[in-house]
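Hi P.,

Sorry for the delay on this. The queue was packed all week, but I finally got your sequence through. Input first:
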Amino acid sequence: MSEIYPLQYNKGLIGKPGSISELNTPALILDLDILESNILKMAQFAKEHHIYLRPHAKTHKSIKIAHKQLTEGALGVCCATVGEASVMTENGISGVLITSPIVTSQKIQELMRLQSYGNSIIVTSDNNKNIRLLNDIVGEAGQKLDVIIDIDVGLNRTGASDIESSILLAKLVNSSKNLNFVGIQGYAGHLQHLKSYNERVELVKKDLEILRKVRDTLTSIGLKPSIVTGGGTGTHFIDANIDIFTELQVGSYSVMDVEYLEIEPEDIKWPYEPALTLLSSVVSSNQPGIATIDAGLKVFATDGPEPTIINGAPEDSKYQFFGDEHGKIILGQTNSFLTPGDLIELIVPHCDPTINLHDYYYCVRGDTLVDTWNVDARGMH
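Then the structure:
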């Protein structure tokens, strides 16, 4: 089957100088120079702080980006779903940790199929019933499975709720014939986007104390976790300095988004730059003070702030959602105007779900389209 339009048209621009300005819009743009710089900076940060990285592939959903992260020293990648793990494992990505409990027999059986590729999958669990089901199905498959106990550090989404239950779960995994207890997880997702850096520091230290106490208790009874995993882009400066984690699950740092750029970093500015933008075109400008572009609800996530304009419009212009296919550019300057065909480039609001709305990355270096990459794990639940 022939490639669909607009991919067919855009691929014809590869290697042509200035071709970014000829792309069929809306187009999800990935600046490879910035992406590679972000990946290298985080890898260097981890080495300097003597901590490992297992970046979260739920952000980019890309085999090529995952390979770049592994090349720079990552242990593997995290995945949120079995579907994401399938895509990564089947394409040569090792060290996959699934960060959400896998509770149905069908999905556990899929894990056993994935392990047949020769790379051990690590899963998380937070309840007795799930651990027993994992043990039964893994045993029927004649395999072993590495398990991490998920601990609730304040997000209240998944995880054992207290120290005592966490210890009991670890003991249950350790006594299960077909399971290997390898560690504990604590993801403070509720702290990642707190605007104040000082507030994040205070709450990370407070909320992750349960993780420290579980680690120390397990160590005292001979079940020292070899993996203590968690953290994220918004707290990684703090996570690396509290002597709890052995590895970080950072994700959004690779491409960045408006949400992270709006919070305070450790230093005066973020070391990671936005590698991901959305290129759009003005389609109408008949109304005074506004212009309509071809980028609406179908190309941007809507669970966070609005996209930020970085190129193509007057400096104080703002974006508003304007329908499924359309966005509104509110022109801030007196007598400023845009015309149909003008290009507007925006930083995406929340990278993970925005990427999941697109089939392709249009990869650029400078102003030139150099490649197109599939969003390989799009929609993989």
